[in-house]
Amino acid sequence: PHMGLYFTAEEVLTIAERIEENGVIFYRRAAERATAEDVRKLLLRLAQDEEGHRRAFAQMRAGLTSGEKPAFTLSPEDDAAGYLHALADLVLFPRDANPSDILGATPTRRDVLLTAIQKEKDSVAYYAGMRQIVPKAFGKMKVDAILREEMRHVAELARQIEQVGA
User: Fold this and answer.
1) DSSP line for 97-114
2) Could you read off the pLDDT of 121-133 as tens digits, one per residue?
3) Is the pLDDT score of 138 beyond 60?
């Protein structure tokens, strides 16, 4: 019943963790297929980064106050939980995505970085939208923290692209 009205910080963080997890899976899968060693290393590092982000969001979620949590918990069988997972799986890194479809057959480091930047930008837009539907009492500041984190990732990746050169 609450789903149409608002999200809580806990729900947004659950989605964020799942999105990062999907990113880890995507980059690892891409690394397995990479032929160039420098590209493979970059993909594995991106997978590691996503895992770090996932852990950061899990810690944030563990630190939520009772006021930021809903008075109910979502069981995995719950429709709302299914909805959140589906949402995470459709955004950014679809669970069943074929890395070649997204990165191309033989991506360069630059291709990979450009794709990673696009994914991070998409996530910034996604969380900016989520921010609109999280009431202050349910942890809007936590969503702001996710947004800042994702924006930092974009800046980091942009710096790496400059180092790679055109």
Assistant:
1) --HHHHH-SS--HHHHHH
2) 888 888 887 777 7
3) yes
